[in-house]
Amino acid sequence: MSRLIDEIRFTKELISKPSVTPKDFGAMRVVTKYLKKLGFKCKIMSFQEKGTEKIINLYAKYGTKSPNLCFAGHTDVVPAGDLTSWSSNPFKAKIQKGYLFGRGVSDMKGGIGCFISAVSQFINENKKFNGSISFLITGDEEGIAVNGTKKVVEYLKKKKEKIDFCLVGEPSNRSKLGQMIKHGRRGSITTYLTVKGKQGHIAYPHEALNPATPIIKILNELKSKPLDYGNKDFQPSNLEITKIYIDNTADNIIPAKASATFNIRYNNLHTFNSLKKQISKTIKKIEKKFKCKTEVKFIGTGKSFLTKPNQNVKKIQKIIQKETGQKAKLSTSGGTSDARFIKDIAPCIEFGLVGNTMHQVDERSSIKDMKKLKLIYLKIIKSFFN
Questions:
Q1: Residue 2: pLDDT band with limits 50, 70, 90
Q2: Domain map (residue ranges) of the chain
Q3: Would you put residue 325 in left (φ > 0), alpha (ψ -120 to 50) or beta?
């Protein structure tokens, strides 16, 4: 008999590893240790692009047959912030008033614990089943996300590894377990804009070229009209200015350059290239009008995607409703997740714990929710192989 894994005990051990992105501090060893005990074949993969830190990733698999049900998640967490503001050590998980406290418990070490616990019970009850179960775990989701799931997906593509369905354990619910399944995400594109003018004395503007004026015009024009009005699956795309910078130490000098950064979260009415073309057209028009020079850099960190509500998604909705009494809404709201990479090789959805304290001081998850999520995951696994 395989050893049953308790979701609370496992999560407490994982929280004890202060794996603030991009550091691992033994977190992946904890996951690997438990999966090996269950009979999983584990492959550790480390990636490091130039100028970045090395990231440890794991792909583990039990069985060799199809279909392959994959669980995806991340062991890295955001910084704890001001430690004196926490009611206890964020990396020494404690139970208080029915909640497990600790950095990463909801986002998303608790989700990993619930799925591993569910898998341990399933394997105990079903030594032989028609299919495979796999785990894709990264340490680079909260950071720049270039050495994590993205690279593992590329490796799996090369190896022609087939994943039939992927469940990402992100905290998809805002206030109650069972509220929401994420079945898609908006894409993200960040633009870094620099406008170059000509420095000069403020009393002689005709002898200078103030870059502040054209950069303000560009930003105003980009913000003046909505990108779209959304559709039945997605909320409207939005452009938000995040930085405006002019390096000028004196008040009587017209500056030589001005910079701005803005981010667009876009739905499936756009692509990276279509937005790049649209933004560039606006910039070039104003550049020509003011006879200034511009430098533009576009960074896309994820494309928009949508998983159609197929038979597996509908089965999962029914299981969630039966266990929680909540009819899980299919949503594409929120930021990005590693599902943006996994969707290239498998249909995927996100369902995990309640995330209303993630990234906050005293991050916590209800013990009752964790036990219920473990049961939901177990029933999802059973339904997938029946």
A1: low
A2: 7-185+304-385, 187-302
A3: left
Instruction: Tell me the whole-structure pTM to 2 decimals.
Output: 0.90
What's the CATH code, domain 187-302?
Answer: 3.30.70.360
- How remote is the C-alpha of 255 from its chain's centroid? 38
Superfamily (CATH H level) for 7-185+304-385: Zn peptidases (3.40.630.10)
**Catalytic entry in 76, 107, 140, 369:** 76
- In angstroms, the CA 363 to CA 354 distance is 11
Q: Which of 7, 13, 140, 141 is catalytic?
A: 141
Q: Are 197 and 292 in contact (CB under 8 A)?
A: yes
Q: Is 76 assigned a catalytic role?
A: yes
Which residues have a Cβ under 8 Å from the Cβ of 280 and sit 6 or more positions away?
296
28 cis-preceded (ω within 30 degrees of 0): no
pLDDT digit string, tens, across residues 86-125:
999 999 999 999 999 999 999 999 999 999 999 999 999 9
pLDDT digits (tens, 9 = 90+) for 285-308: 999 999 999 999 999 988 999 999
Neighbouring CB atoms inside 10 A of 351's CB total 28
The per-residue pLDDT for range 134-166, each reduced to its tens digit, is: 999 999 999 989 999 999 999 999 999 999 999
